[in-house]
Amino acid sequence: MKFSRIAALAVLLGLCLFTQAAVAQVPPPSMPCSGANLVDQKFPTAGPEVTHWRLCWQAVPGNGLLIHWAYFRKAPGAPWLFLLWDARVSEIFVPYHTGSPRFYDVGYLFPLTPIGAADCPASQGGTVLAGSVCKEVHDRGLSWKADSQVYRGQEVVLWAALAAANYNYVIEWTFRDDGIVMGRVGATSHNFPGREFETHVHNPIWRLDVDLNSWPNDSVALGTHKETGLSATDTEPPIPLSAGLQWDPRAFNTLDVSDKFLVNGKKDKTYYQLIPLPTQGLAQHQEAFTKPDFWVTHYNPAQMSAKDLVSYTTPSVSVSDTDVVIWYRGSVHHHPRDEDGEKVGGVWHGVALVMWTGFMLKPHNLFDRTPFYP
Amino acid sequence: MKELLGGVGARIRVVSVLPVLIKTESPEKFDVKQRQIEVVLFRPEGEVGVRVIVNLRKQNVVAVSRLTSDQVPYTNDDLADAFQLASRDPEVMKALGPEAQTFQVRPAAPSRTTPKNVVEGLPVRSSDPNDPCSKHRCLWLMFRRGNEYLSEPSVTVDLTDKRVYVEKPVTDRKADH
């Protein structure tokens, strides 16, 4: 009896060592950052690893909080998948309803606001990085549920606030245990002095240099749903040339980025879908760069400015099997309300509560099966 | 670069200095330890900007490109210029009242304490071709007393033409509907 227990323990130990050896097969990739700028997060946070993010962040005056290089590993023995070269808020365009002013809030090299424990409490999984960036690692709610079976997901969130004069812009990047990346901008602080009741729109435009499975060899397709009578079809027509495109919510449009060689274990083509997450709607203004909601351009390190997108796509160039950059514009329609503050003795007193807009980058056929399912 | 920014004696501003990563043609050739920086320079006279990529390891200039005035970000130097112009405007000084002389440009370095009286600026660009700010470098100034902003004065400074425009505040909230 005693012998068989010892034998069983020995077998168990052997299995553990074998598993450890298998896990150690894929060393972490070299990164262009270190120290507080390197985020290395496994999920779940407790117990054996299932998935893993490894990424760099950088605080840049004007653009705020950038993500440089993001790798995702879908299983301990799987290779690290390169996903992002650079992700940033390229511009925040803010036109007021009377036609003027029309602000370009990223056009000034505004700094990030300093933050402390009140912004980023440890009780919520928060850690203050370099005095201006909050890293939160926490539960993200239900990941899946099937009757009595349930799994709650987790995520690592990085955020910082850009001190753009009367506004603070909360720039947030979320990396979830299931491989999803989310980007959001929240507008808050003070309404425009002297025009506190004038409606306006904050349009953050993200520049996302997605390099799926590294670069080049990436292409982009427009995920499109179409209803015909009682039936419906889903297609992914390729976007062959650099261009601006409009998002049709009824067509469930997505920008699908794929790599010529990347498939999952079932040999299904892997792609990442850019899915808009508007809070209320998407604006279009007089300025040509605000007419499309999506843009696809060829990588050019000098092309960082959303307001110049028309010139970046004129003339159009091929964006098939190459190094692509995708852009997305969200909108926050701010119709002032009494909850934004009040005038006391001729002075505006109070602050505008945070209003968000954002997007999701969602993997499609990256995993071979439901992640985290037993 | 000298050609673009002018010769000796030209007043040149350093707008930004940032580490950058620039891709090589293939990932295999990319050196993760590359030390390259991007420097943006601006000559206010003539409003010419230059973007320079410098390889610190090789100590050479990798690329130089010209920037138009609207491609050069605004800094506290522009804000200081704008505030100096605004300070000469009697209408602005009258609106700021007896405390007018106490206002100063908001410090570029972030701080957890807000100075008492500061001026801040936001880049503004018009889409009306008749508005000089459709082509010029313009900053909208905001005046802040502690944590509150003053409703008046509303000031736009055309840095290119060195002109100051003061606007009456909008007080009727129904005007928006």
What does this structure look like?
The complex is a heterodimer of chains A (374) and B (177). In chain A, the strands form 3 sheets. In chain A, strands 1, 2, 3, 4, 5, 11, 14, 17, 18 and 19 form a 10-stranded antiparallel beta sheet that branches. Chain A has a 10-stranded antiparallel beta sheet with strand order 6-7-8-9-10-22-16-15-12-13, with no helix packed on it. A two-stranded antiparallel ribbon of chain A has the order 20-21. Chain A is globular. In chain A, strand 8 (149-164) and strand 9 form a beta hairpin. The model of chain A is unreliable at 6-22 (pLDDT under 50). Chain A contains 2 helices and 22 strands. Chain A has 374 residues and is mainly β. Chain B is mostly beta strands. Helix content of chain B is 13%, strand content 35%. Chain B is built from 3 helices and 10 strands, in the order H-E-E-E-E-H-H-E-E-E-E-E-E. In chain B, strands 5, 6, 7, 8, 9 and 10 form a 6-stranded mixed beta sheet that branches. A 4-stranded antiparallel beta sheet of chain B has the order 1-2-3-4, with no helix packed on it. Chain B is elongated, with a radius of gyration of 20 Å. In chain B, 27% of the residues are buried. The mean pLDDT of chain B is 90. Chains A and B meet through strand 4, strand 5 and strand 21 of A and strand 1, strand 6, strand 7 and strand 8 of B.
Radius of gyration of chain A: 23 Å
Structural class of chain A: mainly beta
Basic shape of chain A: globular
Whole-number radius of gyration of chain B?
A: 20 Å
Number of helices of chain A: 2
Count interface residues per chain for the largest interface: A-B, 61 and 53 residues
The helix count of chain B comes to 3
Helix content of chain B: 10-25%
Q: What is the oligomeric state here?
A: heterodimer
Helix content of chain A: under 10%
- The fraction of residues assigned to DSSP E strands of chain B is 35-45%
The first-to-last residue Cα distance of chain A is 32 Å
Q: What's the end-to-end separation of chain B, in Å? A: 51 Å
Uncertain spans of chain B: none
Order of helices and strands of chain A: HEEEEEEEEEEEEEEEEEHEEEEE
Structural class by secondary-structure content of chain B? mainly beta
Q: Which percent range describes the beta-strand content of chain A?
A: over 45%
Biggest sheet layout of chain B: 6 strands, mixed
- Residue-averaged pLDDT of chain A, rounded? 93
How are helices and strands ordered from N to C of chain B?
HEEEEHHEEEEEE
Low-confidence stretches of chain A: 6-22
